[in-house]
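FYI - complex with magnesium ion, inputs then prediction.
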Amino acid sequence: MNPAAKPQPNDDVIVRAHGGGGEMMGRLISDHIVSALGNQTLNALTDGAVLPCNGKHIVMTTDSYVVQPLEFPGGDIGRLAVCGTVNDLAVMGGRPIGLSLGLIIEEGFRLDRLDRILDSIAKAAREASVEIVTGDTKVIENVRGDGLFINTAGVAELDERARLGFDQIRPGDAILINGNLGDHGIAIMSVRDGLEFETTLRSDAAPLNAMIGDLLSSGVAIRFMRDATRGGLAGVLADISDRAGFGIELSELALPRDPHTRAAAEMLGFDLLAVANEGKVLLVVADSDAERCVDIMREHDTGRRSARIGRVVASNPPLVELVTEHGGRRIVQRPYGEELPRIC
Ligand code: MG
């Protein structure tokens, strides 16, 4: 046997789908990571950890970014690294205090390109009203000459009024989203491998902490929030249905979607429900507060196209169902995870 042969996909090695945010990644996390390191805080598998601190609480989170290409319409790896971590803090009810920035740079990386990405990090941090307060820089050997990986961690002060969690969700609650689905994933796919579309597809990467902060301050009854990144809306809804034990009924007609993104997704064979977003939060809110939430979200640039897209139902078994534009019903599955590698 050739010793240089690449490992074949089997049960003993990591494959790209393990990082796709779908079912494969779920199993990697539960069967290996949580089984080795689990504790009460980690086992919750939320976007960040809520930790007690002198009678109050802080939120802590970390994320690594490996997106390819590094720069794309609407953003770059630096903008993602700020927005992703800020949004993970915000959906936990946190007001970001500071971020760390860890850079892993391949030898041969162009300095002007690094400067461009650092400028983008500074701009995104200003938008989110947060600073990079500590960091780390490592250089690794030249593999392709264009490699850059970023890790950001963040700390936030918990808004103590927030009562968020899968256990807060009830049948009858409304499902909201703050705008068009799938723009990030489709923008990346449009530039990858030389595939270009003659349209204005752009990533939606944006910090959502100002909009979420306004929602929390207004006192509306938010039960649960999660940013719909890898695995898209379908991944978040599958988690809600599994963990809360209720069904979800989505209305296809109500889903905000950009017509160009939609056309590109159809051409490429992607289901926009399963495509990554980087500036979208899914909210579960009390039905009586749904309209008020949408009004507050629409006051922000990041929420202009906010909509109520579905509701929580007491179905058995708990399934995520889409009521199609033609009035039919189809079950929305948890994405498997291999469709869009290195999307964030
Ligand atoms: Mg998240």
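Residues 47, 88, 226-227, 229 surround magnesium ion (CB under 6 Å). Confidence is low (pLDDT under 50) at residues 1-7.
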